[in-house]
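Revision sheet: structure tokens.
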Amino acid sequence: MGTLRAFALLLLVLAIAGCGQTAQSPAAAPTEAPAAPAVGGTVRRAITAEPTSLDPHATPGSGQNVILPYIFDTLIFRAMDNSYQPYLATSWEIAPDGKSVTFTLRDDVTFHDGTPLNAEAVVFTFNRFKEAKTSAAEGLASMTGVEALDDDTVRFSFAEPSAVFFSTLATPYAGIVSPGAVEAAGDAFGQQPVGSGPFKFASWQQGTEIVLERNPDYHWSPSTISNPGAPYLDQVIFKVIPDASTQLAALQAGEVDLIFVNSPSQISKLQADPDVQLIETQLNSLIYLGFNCARAPLDQVTVRQALSHAVNKDEILQAALGGTGQVAFAPMAPTLPGFDPSLKQYELGYDPARASALLAEAGFTPGADGTLRKDGQPLTLTLLTFARAPNEDVATLLQSQFKAIGVNVDIQQFDTPTAAKAATEGQYDLLLWRYDRNDADVLNVNLHSSRIGSSNRFGYRNPQVDELLDQAARELDEVARARYYVEAQKLIMADAPWQPLYIPVDVLAISSKVHDFQLASMGRVLLNEAQLLQR
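Predicted:
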């Protein structure tokens, strides 16, 4: 009980700190008035995959989470130091038993359609969000109710304390929607979304671009932004450009102003371009090789361990990534609580001799051509991934490394939605994938047996792991919670549903004519006070 009270007090202090004003020291009056902001213009951002919907409660997909924060606001936001700060909610109070949280809302917020964003809109949003039963809503699993105490006060109730509730609130999928717009649009809401964000939906040309325009009524920016009012830009346009090389060419030709880059050769090329700014971002990401535990022969832990030992991560980092990034050994990104360097001792490291011995133990023997066979059938596996640099190079290296121990690999690379559908349906043997997640609950989302058929694409189940992840999801003490994740990772690493490969470095490449943008958690680019200036 003392821990819960301490946790509640900590968050209350954060809330109060986020709302307070910073004391200013006396200073001489400036000799010149600050320059007026440059109002107007359009920033164009390239996106690799077009979203299927801009409804925050639709099934999460690539591209969707990039655009949603511009249209929808959330109750709280996560600062770069991972603290939770006020946004639409000015403060909150956690009950001593951790089973309810009460939020006080701003009283001056309106949706793009002119209707008020009040407690009833928050209740509508979170009931709808939970009923959607998407992977993004799983952080609301223990929520038993949400009620409006008055126009500006909302209480959430839980069956048990939820350690993932606040991280869920800070995601773009928890954006507050206009109840009137949802009811009017019905199933079409995802193609004509209405929120309260700094930009509002203008148009969508399928396969080409999504256009957002300035919300002139906006005046409730997060506390980290010095411009409290409407953005200075007229528009933000998201251009659908699936190919990374085409994105690069578009940036250098001035056709787009912002792309994300993770190809070493592209980063090197842009470093020599005086018209481009390069900024490293932190996405709490991990690139991993997943095994389909529901499909033979990968349903045998011995085979998964063998294939893990066949992976030379150092070669991948040097040959495919030019040494950019960091070799991974645990299923948790180092930037997430729950990562522990001591887990290195449990890594199934590169050992081709051990890989061959384990495959022999599983009944595979080399044929005349060196290919491993069992009951006369060659060991051939399908590796599935999505079209994003440097996946093709990494997949080709993995193919070569498995070939060296007698395992044939066929590579299938699709656009992101197609690859995600095939992965969720289990239409693969090996899966080259990544996660970007702002909470250690990423293990729960991807590897808890209750998520098989949805976000657990691997058919992995271990009751001990499930119990540890369940305990972590209930634990509000962050130190104790991290210990549960460490114990879960020890079991996961032995079971080998994944072979962690590397921690990527994602770089924001943005035209030097774009000034005063800000980075937020998970690599989000805030344009509330961005301006276009002449180079």
